Each structure stands twice: as C-alpha cells, then as structure tokens.
Amino acid sequence: MSAFDSLPKAELADDGGRPLEAQLLVTADPAPAIAQAVAEGYAVMPAGGLTSAIGAFAYAQDSISDFKGVVAVRPKQSPEPELAEPGTPLEKLKTNQIMIDPATATVSAGAGLTFSQVNAVLGHVVGPAARVLVDLTSIGSAMVGGVVASGSMGPLRLRPSASLAGVALAAGGAEAELLTGDDIHRAEGMQGWTGLVTAARLRYFETPLNEFGLVLPVQSGDTDALGDFLAYLHPWTKLDVPESGSSLIGAKDEATIVNGVELVTRSSLEQFILHAGGDSLKAKAQNLLQSCDYAGADWLACITGWSDHAVDDVLVMLLDEETETIGGVMIDFGVGFSSGSEMDAFRAIREGAPDLARTKARVTPPGQMKPWTTSSDINLVCLERDTTPLANALSSYQTYREAVAALGLEFEGRLKTEMTVYGHLNPHGLDPHHRVILTGAPEFKDDLAAAAKQVGKLKMALLRDLVRVANGFGAVINGGEKGAPSLVELMRALGGEAGLPSNLQSDLARARASIKNAPRAFSFRAPAELF
Ligand SMILES: Cc1cc2nc3c(=O)[nH]c(=O)nc-3n(C[C@H](O)[C@H](O)[C@H](O)COP(=O)(O)OP(=O)(O)OC[C@H]3O[C@@H](n4cnc5c(N)ncnc54)[C@H](O)[C@@H]3O)c2cc1C
Comparing C-alpha atoms, which of 399, 411, 498, 497 is closest to residue 453? Predict the structure, then answer.
C-alpha cells in the first residue's frame, strides 16, 4: 500500500467554503514528497493559506480519471520562522525557513510563511523601515507560495514579480527548480497548475518609516469627483521600484508614499459595528460612520501609505492649498490613524467590513439555499494623471450596481440580493471588487438560477465596458488579482482570445506555454482555454 493512501482527508475549505476534495500532506520539504506522489500516479494540488475565494481548488472528476487520487500538499508553517544557514540555495530552503542576504538586499522565504512574518524578520534583522513590496490585505493569512501562485496585488497594485528575484518550483523532480527572470511567470499567477512554489526570493526596500491611514468619506455616485480625486493622488502613488535594495522612490515625495485607497461602504461599516468585538474598536467604527453621515457620503476611502512624517503632516502635504481639499474631497470629516495600535484598529475595521461580506457569501442561512455569489476582479491602470478613464471606469461600475439593484427589485419577495463593494482604488490599478450575493428559500431554486444567470451576464457586460474604457481613453487592463483565471474570465467576456487587448493576448500565450510544459499531475485543474 502506498504511503499516500493512508493520508487523512483534507478537512479544509477555501475562503468561499468549498472543501478541498483531496488527501492532505503537510511538509516542510515538498519536492521529494511530490516526486514520489507523481511517480506513484497521484495528482497534486498545492494548498496555501486557503484565503482564495474563487473556488480555486475545484476540478472536474473526469480530469482525474487517470490518477490514483489527488494529494493536497500544504507547505509547513511556523509561528516563528526558522533562520536558514546563510548561502542555502533557494531550491533547498524549507517552507518554514527564511534567509536574508544584506549584500543583495534580498530575502528568501519558505512557501509556508506569511509576508507579515517576512516583514517582521526584516524589521528585526535589517531595520524597521525594511519591507517587501507585497501588501495584499490578507498579508497576515495568505502564504508566500499562495501569493506568488495567485499573482496577488494589494493597495500598491504591484504583482510579486515587480520585486521577485527567484522562485523555487517543485513539479515532480527530486529537487525544486529555480526560476529566475521571465521564467518566474511559469509560477506567478498560475494557481499551482504548473507546480508547487516551495520558496521565493524577493528584493526588499527601505520605505518611509511609519504606516498611516487616512479615512475620507466620499460619494459613490459622483464618479467625476472620484476620478478627480484619484487622478490627484497619481503622483504620490507612482513608484519607481529600484533594481536592487535601497530607498523606494516615490514620484512626488520620497518621504511619503501613498500605497492606495481601500474601500469600505457605509452599509458594510454598519454591519461591522453590529458584529465588532471590543468597545474601543466599535467606538472607532462608530466615529467613522458619523463622519459618513456628516458628509452625506456612502463610501469611505481609506488611504494607506508610509511616511517619515506624522499623519497630521501627511494630511497637510496631500492638501491642495487652493481648494483646501484632497483632489476635491473635503477633509473636514477625515479621520487619521498612525503606526502601532491605531493602525491595528484601522486595519481591523478596513478588513472586517469586507470579511463579513465573504462570510455571508459562504454561510447558508437557516431554511435557505446555499448563497450564490460572484465578485468582479479586473485591474485598470491609468498611465497618466488623467481623470477621464478613471471617471469612465467608475461610471461603468455605477451602471453595474444600478442594474443589479434593478434585478434585486425584480426578484423581491423571492430572493435577497446584496452587493458589497470593497477592494482597491488607485490610479495604478482601479479594482473595486463588487460582490453580489443571492439567497432564497429552496422553493425559489429556479428564481435563484435565473437571477444568477442574469448577474453573470451583467458582469460580463461590465468587463466588456471596462475594456472599452481602457481602449478608448488610454488606460491599460493588465488582468486581475487572480492571475491566469482573471485572464480566462476576461477572454470569455470578450467572446474569445481575439477580443483581448494585445498585452493580455501575450500573457495568455505565455500562460498556455507554461501549462503545455507542466506535468498533467498539476495542470489537470487548469481551464480548457489554456490547453
Ligand atoms: C481578508 C482577505 C483579504 C484579501 N485581500 C486580497 C488582496 O488585497 N489582494 C489579492 O490579490 N487577494 C486578496 N485576497 C485573496 C487571497 O488572499 C489571495 O489570492 C492570496 O494570494 C491567496 O493565498 P493563499 O496562500 O491563501 O492561497 P490559497 O487560497 O491556499 O490558494 C490559492 C491558489 O494558489 C494555489 N497555491 C497555494 N499555495 C501554492 C503553492 N505553494 N504553490 C503553488 N500553488 C499554490 C492553490 O492551489 C490555489 O489554486 C484576500 C482574501 C481575504 C480572505
């Protein structure tokens, strides 16, 4: 009997609640275990922090008919990363190990660590301003391997490859293979369909010392004003990523870098207050709700960044002296947060609100069907400081929201239709995720199916509209936060490969080549469009 037969069933589920249909192996040294599994005829499914919400672990039963079964391989984690011997090759790094090389200003991190752990070690060893440029909002729960495999982006809107110096990929050989340069794309954004990332090497940088958060109430329907606001922030959000470690260079002011703007809607803030634990957090959230009410606003724009200055000085620095606004947005009801416990509270509120929406999307309410849900994910980049593409893109989202609201009215009494908006506003990557959740009692099964189909069509229309905006107004769509799956979704919306913008056609060709060269034991989960 094979050792893999006796592995326990993976009693794990992704962020969308979908269980991993596999047996589970947790190991600090995945390459030899994978080689053995592949040799014995098993398919392999890498698993990370399980924070991905796209049914990332789904596969068709007939795609595994040639295999003995599916083994989910999860890199071993550690509460405290272990320091590896200096000079350890990346391919030999254990998944819970870390190694810093000040000479090249790089950090090598095992796939089982989180980037919060990586930054904490950098803080101790190099200094408090040393950071990697991975800032996705799940930085404390997603794993290094999962982030690279998803090609994820945070408020900075930079993919890991912007500062990746190497990736170790285990795909059935006795040792992991070292990928550098363009080959990194064989792993980044490929969702584990080409192998398991065992470790990654990233350049680290000296950033301005303090983190800050600045919350400004804004009106979602005023898309021109929001476009002006984002275009105004363009110079602070534009980064030059230096070739080797040193100070990160912001286009406007090295001492202050705006990472981006995260959205929290008034309604999700209300929900957060209902469920928040801890009086002080609740009070802070209530304070923000009051700001919304005083400003007559329905969204909160949570500006995040790093600065050598105090948050009050950052506010003054961002202020347009003539209008006494930040790009047209009034600061009278703004609330500032600075490093330490203040920032923890800021993050808890900023992340807590969308997190509740994700929970709602996966929990079946008593007497109801399992919720149906879909979320938008497309990254539109504005190369110049220009309001027009930003305002037009935001207007496309506004049209989508209105159409979904109209659909909600059509099915009222039979289905509950909810939409949560969260995600990222940044001139270098506008991606305000719009999550729609449909729920209803079992007798309205047909209605749920019909409404889901209509939302699907509306979402496809939104994607087409965003591509039209990008093509018409000099912006660029560079895919979405989910790497290859975002690319495939766009391709479906645009009626095939020929409809994709040329940069995405190249990305698609590259993804296809990677899948073609990957062992079937990994690529069995990839969509048909990539073969
Ligand atoms: C609160 C919250 C906030 C989030 N914020 C963001 C955000 O700001 N930006 C963003 O882009 N996403 C965000 N996400 C989504 C998610 O965190 C990211 O996609 C993340 O990169 C997934 O990492 P993971 O380790 O959880 O991977 P998992 O969810 O475990 O896996 C995701 C995919 O990667 C594959 N995989 C996992 N580990 C490996 C490995 N070692 N080698 C090869 N393949 C692997 C899996 O097979 C799967 O296909 C958020 C999610 C949550 C819950």
Answer: 411
For residue 19, the model assigns a pLDDT of: 81
Cβ burial 345-357 (10 Å sphere, 16+ → b, else e) = bbbbbbbbbbbbb
Which residues face 303 on adjacent strands? 214, 261
Interval 373-392: pLDDT, tens? 899 999 999 988 999 999 99
Locate all alpha helices (DSSP H) within 306-443, ordered by sequence: 311-318, 341-362, 387-410
Q: Are 220 and 421 in contact (CB under 8 A)?
A: yes
Would the CATH topology of 82-207 be identical to that of 210-350?
Answer: no
Atom 1, ligand 1: residue with shortest CA distance: 138
- Phi first, then psi: give them for residue 25, nearest 5 degrees: -125, 125
- Listed in sequence order, the DSSP H helices in 194-295 are 223-237, 266-275, 279-295
**Mutation probe of ligand 1 site: the residue of 138, 167, 185, 424 with most atoms within 8 A of C-beta:** 138
State the distance from the centre of ligand 1 to the C-alpha of 125, rounded, in angstroms. Answer: 27
| Entry pTM | 0.94
Compute the C-alpha angle 430/426/341, nearest 5°.
125
Mean pLDDT of all residues in 197-218: 94
Q: Is pLDDT of 249 > 80?
A: no
Could you count the other beta carbons within 10 Å of the beta carbon of residue 463? 23
Query: Ligand 1 — pocket residues by CB below 6 A?
Result: 14-15, 45-52, 56, 75, 111, 136-138, 142-143, 145-147, 149-150, 152-154, 191-192, 196-197, 351, 355, 358, 481
Mean pLDDT for all residues in the chain: 92
Name 177's bridge partners: 169
Topology of the domain covering 210-350:
Alpha-Beta Plaits (3.30.70)
* Strand partners for 168: 178, 199
Given a cut of 90, is residue 125 above it in pLDDT? yes
* Strand 205-206 versus strand 177-179 pairing type: unpaired
The pLDDT assigned to 365 comes to: 85
Domain ranges within the chain, ordered by starting residue: 3-75, 82-207, 210-350, 363-520
Mutate to test the pocket of ligand 1, among 52, 95, 191, 193 (most ligand atoms within 8 A of CB): 52
In a 10 Å sphere around its CB, with 0-12 CB exposed, 13-18 middle and 19+ buried, how is residue 431 labelled?
buried
Q: What would the CATH number be for the domain defined by 82-207?
A: 3.30.465.10
pLDDT tens-digit profile of 255-266?
A: 899 999 999 999
Residue among 446, 428, 401, 441 at smallest CA distance from 299: 401
How far apart CA 30 and CA 302 sit, in angstroms, is 39
The pLDDT tens digits of the residues spanning 471-501 come to 999 999 999 999 999 999 999 999 999 999 9
Mean pLDDT of 203-213: 92
Q: State what percent of residues in the chain have pLDDT above 70.
A: 98
**pLDDT digits over 217-246, tens only?**
999 999 999 999 999 999 999 887 877 656
CA dihedral 93, 98, 102, 103 (to 10 degrees): 0
pLDDT of residue 466: 96
d(CA 466, CA 142): 28
